[in-house]
């Protein structure tokens, strides 16, 4: 049973949402630390090549190709809360194994690859369950505020975490900075455990095969013109942007010649774009319309990414900051708007499969993009590779602008009672 919040301050007064929000905020900070620390371990501590660093990034995303679709069925058949707690505990143990191995001088690239892949598997299940759990916790009318707060705190974590990670690497041997991430997953697990709201019991469905339920989710997304384009365009964006992210640390350390602490600080500073994007997303949607916010935010901000490969030391770092900040503003306006739309638009009984199907495609392109980034970094050099990848990142805005979204002011709102099978017929 959700709790509608009418008091001033909105969801700040919602106890269970506060727990979820606090737990995820701490977990997001830990994950942001790892975002910088893992590649720094590979580059500085284990002297990995650009291709190895790209392959490490790919290992984190390959699980979406392996279990992305079944995860949606598992979530639709189960209660989300126990799944989320189990995934948090597993991720804490996996991340903690890295500093333990380093303490005994046994850490190598092979372990990093295994930890990245297994953590990725747990993250797939967690993310599908997490996004499906929010509508069970909040009233439909509170989803936009809830998503803005959750993604806003995630954006703040992207500011704080990388700087903390860079400083920890500078102060200690790189692997020991991951203790922060391991601890953050445990904090998240405890916070979710303390939530009082219980999801309604899932009704068992007789004679339903895993393959058939996966196919329902695929058909639902493929048949719906809005869900379809909101899957294709960001999948293209993720392919190119993760390629850039995969060699970002290599670019900053070996081309721009920055120290680890400076790398962490710089990555944290540019993440302010995510904070701004999350903060203004709802206002932008109200001002110009949610459909326009989706395609305009992407079309207008993506070209600023082409400032990034102009980065040099000193004053030239401004190119990196401005390019990333504007790019991330667009990404967060898109993410907050689309997350709220999807949660309100899709019937609860198929929401997990819709999220899993979309993320299977969205995140399934990431390992390929990461491998492309590592390959281009090795063949062309990091700077030229960044040019190619961020030029490709302009394409998703053009795809969205060419879709039917351009003819709408707001994204449609499907009645909550619509049955799952209705999406077999496209909207007109």
Q: Your description of this structure?
A:
The protein has 428 residues and is mainly alpha-helical. It has one domain: Up-down Bundle (Growth Hormone, Chain: A), CATH 1.20.1250. It is built from 15 helices and no strands. The radius of gyration is 21 Å and the shape is globular. It starts with 14 loop residues before the first helix and ends in a 27-residue tail after the last helix. The N terminus and C terminus are likely disordered.
List the helices and strands and how they pair.
Elements (H helix, E strand, L loop, with lengths): L14 H31 L4 H28 L2 H24 L5 H29 L5 H29 L7 H15 L16 H14 L1 H31 L4 H11 L1 H17 L1 H12 L15 H29 L2 H33 L1 H11 L2 H7 L27
Helix pairs in contact: 1-5, 1-6, 2-4, 2-7, 2-8, 2-13, 3-4, 3-6, 4-13, 5-9, 5-10, 5-12, 7-8, 7-13, 8-13, 8-14, 8-15, 10-11, 10-12, 11-12, 11-15, 13-14
List keywords for this structure.
mainly alpha; Growth Hormone, Chain: A; 428 residues; single chain
Assembly type of the shown chains? single chain
The number of distinct structural domains comes to: 1
Secondary-structure class: mainly alpha
Number of strand elements:
0
The biggest beta sheet is recorded as: none
Task: Name the average pLDDT.
Answer: 83
What is the CATH top level name? Mainly Alpha
Distance between the termini: 34 Å
Helix content: over 70%
CATH superfamily label: MFS general substrate transporter like domains
Q: Which sequence of SSEs, written as H and E, runs from N to C?
A: HHHHHHHHHHHHHHH
Beta content: under 5%
CATH topology grouping? Growth Hormone, Chain: A
Shape: globular
């Amino acid at each position: 049973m959700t709790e509608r919040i009418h008091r001033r301050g909105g969801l700040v007064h919602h106890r269970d949402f506060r727990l979820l929000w606090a737990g995820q905020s701490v977990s997001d900070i830990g994950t942001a630390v790892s975002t910088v620390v893992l590649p720094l371990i590979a580059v500085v501590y284990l002297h990995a090549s650009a291709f190895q660093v790209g392959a490490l990034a790919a290992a984190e995303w390959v699980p979406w190709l392996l279990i992305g679709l079944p995860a949606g069925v598992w979530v639709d058949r189960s209660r989300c809360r126990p799944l989320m707690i189990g995934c948090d505990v597993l991720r804490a143990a996996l991340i903690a194994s890295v500093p333990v191995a380093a303490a005994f001088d046994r850490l190598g690239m092979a372990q990093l690859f295994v930890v990245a892949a297994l953590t990725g598997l747990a993250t797939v299940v967690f993310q599908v369950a997490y996004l499906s759990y929010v509508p069970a916790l909040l009233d439909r009318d509170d989803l936009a505020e809830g998503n803005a707060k959750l993604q806003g705190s995630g954006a703040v974590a992207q500011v704080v975490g990388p700087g903390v990670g860079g400083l920890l690497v500078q102060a200690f041997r790189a692997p020991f900075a991951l203790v922060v991430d391991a601890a953050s997953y445990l904090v998240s697990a405890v916070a979710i455990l303390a939530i009082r709201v219980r999801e309604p019991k899932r009704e068992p469905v007789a004679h339903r095969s895993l393959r058939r339920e996966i196919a329902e989710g695929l058909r639902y997304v493929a048949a719906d013109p809005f869900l379809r384009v909101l899957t294709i365009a960001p999948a293209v964006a993720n392919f190119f942007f993760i390629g850039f992210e995969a060699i970002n640390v290599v670019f900053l350390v070996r081309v721009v010649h920055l120290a680890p602490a400076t790398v962490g600080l710089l990555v944290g500073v540019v993440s302010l774009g995510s904070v701004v994007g999350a903060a203004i997303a709802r206002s932008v949607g109200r001002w110009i319309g949610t459909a326009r916010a989706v395609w305009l935010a992407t079309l207008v901000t993506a070209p600023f990414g082409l400032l990034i490969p102009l980065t040099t030391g000193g004053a030239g770092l401004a190119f990196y900051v401005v390019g990333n900040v504007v790019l991330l503003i667009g990404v967060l306006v898109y993410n907050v708007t689309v997350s709220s739309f999807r949660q309100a638009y899709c019937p609860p009984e198929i929401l997990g499969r819709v999220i899993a199907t979309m993320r299977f495609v969205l995140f399934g392109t990431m390992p390929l993009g990461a491998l492309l980034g590592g390959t281009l970094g090795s063949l062309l050099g990091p700077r030229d590779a960044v040019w190619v990848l961020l030029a490709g990142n302009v394409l998703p805005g053009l795809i969205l602008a060419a879709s039917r979204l351009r003819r709408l002011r707001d994204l449609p709102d499907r009645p909550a009672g619509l049955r799952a099978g209705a999406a077999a017929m496209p909207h007109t």
